[in-house]
Amino acid sequence: MRVITIDDDFDAWRAAALEALAQGLAPEMVDWRTSQAEPALFNESAPSVHSTGAPPIRVSRELAALLKDAAHCRDARRWNFLYRVLWRWAAGDRSAASPADEDGARLYKMAKAVRRAQHDMIAYVRFRQRDAALGAPEYVAWYEPDHDVLAWGAAHFAARMGRSTWLIATPDGAAMFDGERLQLERRRAVASDHAADAPDAAEALWMTYYRSIFNPARLNESALEQHMPVRFWKGLPEGALIPTLVSDARGGARRVAQAQSVGALGGKSVQVDALDAQPERDAPTSLDACRRCDLWRNATQAVRGAGPSGARIMLLGEQPGDQEDLKGEPFVGPAGQLLDDAMQRAGVPREQVFLTNAVKHFKWEPRGKRRLHKTPAQQEIEACSYWLEQELHDIGARVIVTLGATALNALFGRRATLSAHVGRVVPYRDKLVVATYHPSYALRQNDEAARERTVAAIVAALEQARELASPSQ
Ligand code: URA
Question: Boundaries of each Uracil-DNA glycosylase-like domain copy (predicted)?
């Protein structure tokens, strides 16, 4: 077995792979390892130390692109795998690059995952403007790509943000643009003991890196310590602040801090092609991992529907509110209390209905120390319809009561107006929809008589749903 140790990048692997091919080393005779060299500042164009005179082999344009993309996949065995594909190709076995082949299929899957991560990066990186008095960089962003796409994403932003200076920090490294030159710093997943001795040039990067990772609302202490070892804090002017910030966040100031920091942020719009910003999404593996829209970023958690799987009535609200976001259950805040009273009056036991929302993450904006509900955008309603569809399918309720305009919109589209539907029964696929007001609307009404009329309309809709859902109907 020959161990080939390379820098963890495509060019290094390609040069070494050509050499291994030239020596006739079969894939099973080679174990590819990556060097644990200390992180080093490097330029994209820096020549690889592994360049050799090994003869190139001809591969199709498509295979070249697949290999290059798949090389950025977070798969510890990728260099071994890519070498096997290349070996097979060099031996004349073209099926190695076919999606019908086992290796080919894996290659396509890896490349696709990386391209998706590239799209995600340009869609989801959010630059935050720093205080001008702090000097460069003017903008910073913290981002956690699913695959190793920092260099690609950085080149994208460098081409689009003019001469602004910026830094993108990720768990595996940082990219900095000084208005002219793009510089990348790779950092091993496990920080080496030499991190504290980082050269001066890197120190400015790390100071900014710290600022951008310290979002108290998303504090992950072990990650903070892994990527910014405690011993390194003392080298930073802000280092002394970290323990206080951490203990504040632990002590329950997290939500307030989030509201304040979000409110205080400036920003810069980055023009992104619509197609890039809205890549076609594969099915997410779970609601908790859903990134179909951006709302997950500022929410505590996704709130899925709750209730018996055989419920004959589904109540469809808009989105979780402040308390639902914290507890992870629908309708447990003030609107839920009003709804509970209405259900009781209508003779609809809460335990027998399935309660859910059109949008599963809380959308809000800071207002002082409060998180103020914000109506979800059409795009967010549409992105989340993926989950609503699953619930409609899984629960199979006969009657759906839509609470408010967003719920109605989620089923019938934005042209369906609440005023035209309230109190009516409308067929929807194999179901019946009863549209009514949202309980929050009643809560917002100061006039007591008007509020009682709204509550009565909700009660009437629930009674109607009970009748329509009865097995004799
Ligand atoms: N409002 C809603 O629409 N849904 C909830 O779960 C809570 C408040």
Answer: 304-463
Structural domain boundaries of the chain? 2-121, 125-194, 201-257, 283-468
Q: What number does the ligand 1 atom closest to the CA of 329 have? A: 6
> For residue 324, how far is its CA from the centre of ligand 1 (angstroms)?
7
Q: What's the CA-to-centroid distance between 284 and ligand 1, angstroms?
A: 23
Contact residues of ligand 1, CB 6 A cut-off: 317-321, 324, 330-331, 333, 335-336, 357, 440
Query: Residue 355 CA: which ligand 1 atom is closest?
Result: 6
Architecture of domain 283-468: 3-Layer(aba) Sandwich (3.40)
Mean pLDDT of the chain: 80
Extract the tokens encoding 371. 């998180």
> Best of 327, 357, 387, 388 to mutate for ligand 1, by most ligand atoms within 8 A of CB?
357
Residue 425 C-alpha from the chain's centroid: 38
Closest CA to 132 of 242, 249, 37, 266: 266
Respond yes or no on whether the N-terminal peptide bond of residue 145 is cis (omega within 30° of 0). no
pTM of this structure: 0.47
In this predicted model, what pLDDT tens digit does every residue of 80-135 receive, in sequence order?
A: 999 999 999 999 999 998 988 999 999 999 999 999 899 888 877 777 777 777 77
Q: 145, 117 in Cβ contact below 8 A? A: yes
